[in-house]
Design goal:
Layout (H helix, E strand, L loop, with lengths): L1 H33 L11 E6 L2 E9 L7 E8 L6 E5 L4 H5 L8 E3 L6 E4 L3 H7 L3 H10 L4 E6 L3 E7 L12 H13 L7 H35 L8 H27 L5 H29 L6 E13 L2 E8 L6 E6 L1 H6 L5 E8 L7 E9 L2
Antiparallel strand pairs: 1-2, 2-3, 3-8, 4-6, 4-7, 5-6, 7-8, 9-10, 9-12, 10-11, 12-13
């Protein structure tokens, strides 16, 4: 039994190494077939390659909207007057990524309707794809390896499946077809509204502003702790989260409404809005410590001293908690964070906690002071 326990970490490590090497081999096979060099070392998931004198950006990531398999993003710099994305009609990810588009903003690329295109300028994109040479180039791309093509104002990005069962020789046609698309876009006489071309800067702002706010909020929360020289732990975490939600709701609603209207002008709309939704969630979570500290720091209530019985204790991720219950019938329990030495000395039902409870600036009760009393 001891031998198995000793060997288990080695077996897990060997399995991880085997899976990683197999994945690297699959990626290198795709790179080689597309005309790139194989890589021996993977220091980063994002790297730069050269193809016929053109510098390209390649990123290895995971398909979070579809099959969750490893995918390769190949990004080619291209000055494009149009923005659009192309998908196969039966791709389940299409509806997830392009949910913000109305029905009138999608059209088929090829005559048989196998490929769909989505764009905020669908009429001009449809005119652009009336070129038969371009239609053939796009059809050559979607032969089992390419999941979708995204064109923004400054780049063409192809999403390549790593584990496709299609003929590997078809990968040799991918880069020539992408450069046909690039040439057609850069020589196109089509023009779009200025608001369409500048929307990418608004998207950048949508991503950047919350991140800056998150950093500022966390710094302010720490500064309040340092200035007061104490923590502002609340008695009921749910009450804190509920109050934080109510305070954050107007900000979050304005942010998501802005993200909705901006993302309609920038591809891929659904992915852009989904990213903003995740950022908004992180922003809300980051605001909770600041709201908790403001609740305590600006509280001017006198506070009430109460006595609680220790009814249980537990640890979680190297933190130590005592479970308390007020000395009244039908009162609920709650937990407080204590120091390790206090945790070790305290036994359930053989200790009580005297605590000064204050109302809080946001009416979320918090502990201003506590003292543990031990009973024989």
């Amino acid at each position: 039994m001891e031998i198995i326990i000793l060997l288990l970490p080695l077996l897990i490590l060997a399995l991880v190494v085997f899976v990683s090497l197999r994945e690297i081999k699959q990626v290198n096979n795709v790179l080689y077939r597309m005309g790139f060099r194989k890589r021996r070392f993977w220091i980063s998931q994002k790297f730069t390659e050269t193809y016929n004198g053109h510098s390209l950006s390649l990123t290895l990531t995971q398909d979070v909207l579809g099959s969750r398999e490893k995918i390769l993003h190949v990004s080619i710099p291209a000055r494009s007057p149009l923005s659009f994305s192309i998908w196969e009609r039966d791709d389940a990810s299409f509806s997830k990524v392009n949910t913000i588009f109305e029905d009138g903003n999608t059209a088929q690329v090829d005559p048989d309707g196998r490929l769909l295109i989505a764009s905020p300028d669908i009429s001009k994109v449809t005119e652009f794809f009336s070129d038969e040479t371009l239609q053939k180039a796009v059809k050559d791309l979607f032969q089992g390896w390419i999941k979708n093509i995204e064109v923004t104002g400054d780049a063409i990005t192809a999403t390549v499946s790593i584990k496709s069962k299609a003929d590997p020789s078809l990968l040799e046609d991918v880069m020539p077809a992408l450069f046909v698309l690039k040439a057609k876009l850069e020589t196109s006489n089509l023009r779009v509204e200025k608001s369409r071309q500048t929307s990418k800067y608004l998207v950048t702002a949508l991503y950047t502003i919350p991140v800056v706010c998150i950093i500022v909020e966390l710094v302010l929360a720490v500064l309040l702790n340092i200035k007061a020289r104490k923590d502002f732990d609340v008695l009921n975490t749910f009450s804190l989260i509920k109050m934080a939600f109510l305070l954050f709701l107007p900000v979050g609603a304005i942010y998501l409404l802005t993200a909705y209207f901006v993302s309609k002008k920038y591809l891929p709309s659904g992915k852009t809005f989904f990213t903003c939704l995740l950022i908004c969630h992180g922003w809300f979570v980051a605001s909770i410590p600041l709201i908790m500290n403001i609740n305590g720091y600006f509280d001017r209530s006198t506070g009430i001293e109460k006595e609680f019985t220790v009814v249980d204790k537990y640890t979680r991720k190297n933190s130590y908690y005592l479970v308390l219950k007020e000395n009244e019938q039908n009162s609920s329990t709650f937990s407080i964070l204590v120091r390790e030495e206090e945790y070790n000395k305290t036994l359930p039902y053989k200790a009580s906690v005297r605590m000064v409870v204050k109302d809080g600036a946001f009416k979320v009760k918090w502990r201003a002071f506590y003292k543990i009393e031990y009973h024989n």
